[in-house]
Each structure stands twice: as structure tokens, then as C-alpha cells.
Write a structure and sequence with these properties.
The chain contains 13 helices and twelve strands. It is α/β, with parallel strands linked by helices. The chain has two domains: 240 residues, Aspartate Aminotransferase, domain 2, CATH 3.40.640.10; 138 residues, Aspartate Aminotransferase, domain 1 (Alpha-Beta Complex), CATH 3.90.1150.10. The strands form two sheets. Strands 1-7-6-5-4-2-3 form a seven-stranded mixed sheet, sandwiched between helices. A five-stranded mixed sheet has the order 8-9-12-11-10, covered by helices on one side. α3 packs across α4. The chain is globular, with a radius of gyration of 21 Å. The mean pLDDT is 96.
Length: 383
């Protein structure tokens, strides 16, 4: 079954009672049992809900996974993965990663005795140098947020397998349409479902997928025990959104490629971060493990001015100034003051998340309107 067909049909089935073709919203907190401990697979909605179960099966199929779990947010999903660890364990993570992940790792779990090494995961020599007998996990993003570095998943998986620890990949920027980390050897795939999977900026949700039954059982236990489960209405909305994922991702990718090329040619723009460029340092790896280069583009201005970057972000009309990404509408963000503000400036700057960097989530609007909007903003700076 090919991707578009899986997006619409995998894991879902008509309602057995009414024949409804769309998965019903099972808006219930509990389920009647035939006898104590005898039920139809559902006892209490924190553990399982039929709407959520069909979504989990659908998302697992999109990632070529045997198992899927949905959480009330992307951070809830990440939290469950770190709860697999114990005090004294070590994690190797990218130095260019989402600010919320960095905040959780450093301000929550480091205080509980887990050590994190933030390094450039695209440099395998540096990765290997940080592996110790206490390493239990590599946490990777690819493309990274927000400088769009590319990490070789297969190479990291080899390091993890050799060392006997897990590789988890945040696949939010790529989506399952463009990249399937489990196929390249990852143990766990994480998504902020809020983004491309939902696609309409109306849901907050996270997900984890794996092919390992033991990992699934442990993560399902954590989800049920700690309660970071999404509700049935949100699950229904994502099931609806994901049916057009393949169509949306094609449009995101086409628009982002055109936007990146326009920015590269504009005299007011400095550096453009986009893995679809042949001279991007990770282009060859991206071309190997991805089926396209995604809808995200980051850039700086020619003078590296934070003031000018803030001015541009505030002046755009079609690109809305907001956090998040992956919706049908185009967004512009200033990572230093928004999504990555929780990372200390020195560490952020060293990773390339400079004060003048802007991040675009390129939507599915008409490309002429997007480019006209950027042109007007950039020309306004020049004037």
C-alpha cells in the first residue's frame, strides 16, 4: 500500500455499529464491563480510547512501525522517552535542537541525575568521542530546528547498535511523507503531531512509534501511568488532517524550494538554510534518506542585524508572526526570542542560532503571494 492510500485508510475502519466511514469521536471517560475485569479491550480512557487507537494505528503505518502511541503534546512524548532512563545515565543530543527539548533536558532531567551532551550530531567523530559506558540514548533531530542541519540516521544507528543503546529521532520537520527513521535503523520515532501531521494549527499532540514490542510496552506503561494522553476530539481532528498529508507536503515542499531560491537571490539576504540546495553541507545525506527537502527555510539578513530581522518578521502580511510550524498557513518566527529563547545565548549562538536568524514555515498558499510578501518586506528594509 502506497503512502497516500495509507494516509487515508491504514488503521481505520468503518464504525461496526452504524457503518460510519469516519472514525467516531468516542467522548467517554469509562466503559461498561461485562463482569469485573472483563471488557472489550477498553476499561478507562486514560489507558485506551477507540478514536485514539485508530489514530495510533494510522500513524504507526505511516512510519512503517508496528506500534504507535499518542500523547497530549510533543513534549509529553519526549518526556516518556526520557523516563525510560535512570539517574546516572547519559544522553547524546544535538546542539541545534528545539528549545523546549533543551529546556526539559537541562532544567528537569539534569536535576534528576541524567547527563546530557549537546554536540554536532553530523560529526560522527564527535559523536563517538562522547559515547561512554553510561550512554543510553542518542536524541536526534533531522532536519534540525532551526538551522536545518542534516544528520545521517543510518550512521547514528550504527553507533547506537554498536554501543547497545537507543537512537530516537524527532521526525517532526520531515514528516513520515519525506522520511522514515525506523527504516534507517532508529529505535524510536517522535513527532510533534501538532505540526505537519495535524496540519491545520488546531491541535496540540505528540506521538511515538517503534518496531520493538518491549519498548512499546514500557512506553505504553509510562503513558497510562503518567497520564499525558490526548482526548478523542483531538484524535479525530488529526485523523482528518492526516488524510491530506501527502497532498499538503507536496505543496509545502514546492513552495519552500521556490522561497529558498528567491531568498538566495535577494541582495538583502545573507545566508539561506535549506537542505535542497546542492551546496548545503548535508544535501547528499538528505537526498539519500529523504524523499524531498520539506517546507522549512531559515535565513539571515546581509547585515546580520537582529533589529532588521525583527522588523521584517513584524512587517510581513501573508507570513504570520507566530510560533509553531507545519500548518497550511505560512509562519515566520524569530527563534532567539521565541522557540529557542530558553537556550542560553552563548550556547545558542555557538550552534548557529544567531540573533538575526528568521525561520519560515512555508505554507500551501499561492507561491506568488508568498514571494510578493517577502519581497515587499525585504525591499522595505532596503528603503
Amino acid at each position: 500500500m502506497k503512502f497516500g492510500t495509507k494516509a487515508i485508510h491504514a488503521g481505520v475502519h468503518p464504525d461496526p455499529v452504524t457503518g460510519a466511514i469516519m472514525t467516531p469521536i468516542y467522548q467517554t471517560s469509562t466503559y461498561v464491563q461485562e463482569a469485573p475485569g472483563q471488557h472489550k479491550g477498553y476499561a478507562y480512557a486514560r489507558g485506551k480510547n477507540p478514536t485514539r487507537s485508530q489514530l495510533e494505528a494510522n500513524l504507526a503505518a505511516l512510519e512503517n512501525a508496528a506500534y504507535g502511541l499518542c500523547f497530549s503534546s510533543g513534549m509529553g512524548a519526549i518526556d516518556a522517552v526520557i523516563k525510560l532512563l535512570q539517574p546516572g545515565d547519559e544522553v547524546i543530543a544535538g546542539d541545534d535542537l528545539y528549545g523546549g527539548s533543551y529546556r526539559m533536558f537541562t532544567q528537569i532531567y539534569e536535576h534528576l541525575g541524567i547527563r546530557f551532551h549537546f554536540i554536532d550530531l553530523s560529526d560522527l567523530a564527535v559523536v563517538s568521542a562522547h559515547v561512554t559506558e553510561k550512554t543510553r540514548l542518542i536524541w536526534a533531530e533531522t532536519p534540525t530546528n532551526p538551522t536545518l542541519r542534516i544528520v545521517d540516521i543510518a550512521a547514528l544507528a550504527h553507533v547506537a547498535q554498536k554501543g547497545g543503546f537507543w537512537l530516537a529521532v524527532d521526525n517532526t520537520f520531515a514528516s513520515p511523507y519525506l522520511q522514515n527513521p525506523l527504516d534507517w535503523g532508529a529505535d524510536i520515532v517522535m513527532h510533534s503531531v501538532t505540526k505537519y501531521l495535524s496540519g491545520h494549527s488546531d491541535v496540540v499532540m505528540g506521538a511515538l512509534m517503534t518496531n520493538q514490542e518491549s519498548l512499546y510496552a514500557r512506553l505504553a506503561f509510562i503513558l497510562n501511568s503518567c497520564g499525558a494522553n490526548p482526548g478523542p476530539m483531538d484524535s479525530f481532528l488529526v485523523l482528518r488532517g492526516v488524510k491530506t498529508l501527502h497532498l499538503r507536503m507536496k505543496a509545502h515542499g514546492e513552495n519552500a524550494a521556490a522561497v529558498a531560491q528567491f531568498l538566495r537571490n535577494h541582495p538583502a539576504v545573507g545566508r539561506v538554510y535549506y537542505p535542497g540546495f546542492s551546496d548545503h553541507p548535508g544535501h547528499a545525506v538528505a537526498a539519500k534518506q529523504m524523499r524531498g527537502f520539506g517546507g522549512m527555510v531559515s535565513f539571515t539578513l546581509q547585515n546580520d542585524s537582529e533589529k532588521a530581522a525583527r522588523q521584517l518578521a513584524s512587517s510581513l502580511k501573508v507570513f504570520s508572526l507566530a510560533e509553531s510550524l507545519g500548518g497550511v498557513e505560512s509562519l515566520v518566527g524569530h527563534p532567539a526570542s521565541m522557540t529557542h529563547a530558553s537556550i542560553p545565548r552563548e550556547r545558542r549562538m555557538a550552534a548557529g542560532v544567531v540573533d538575526g536568524l528568521l525561520r519560515l514555515s512555508v505554507g500551501v498558499e499561492d507561491i506568488d503571494d508568498l514571494i510578493d510578501d517577502l519581497k515587499a518586506g525585504l525591499d522595505g528594509l532596503a528603503g
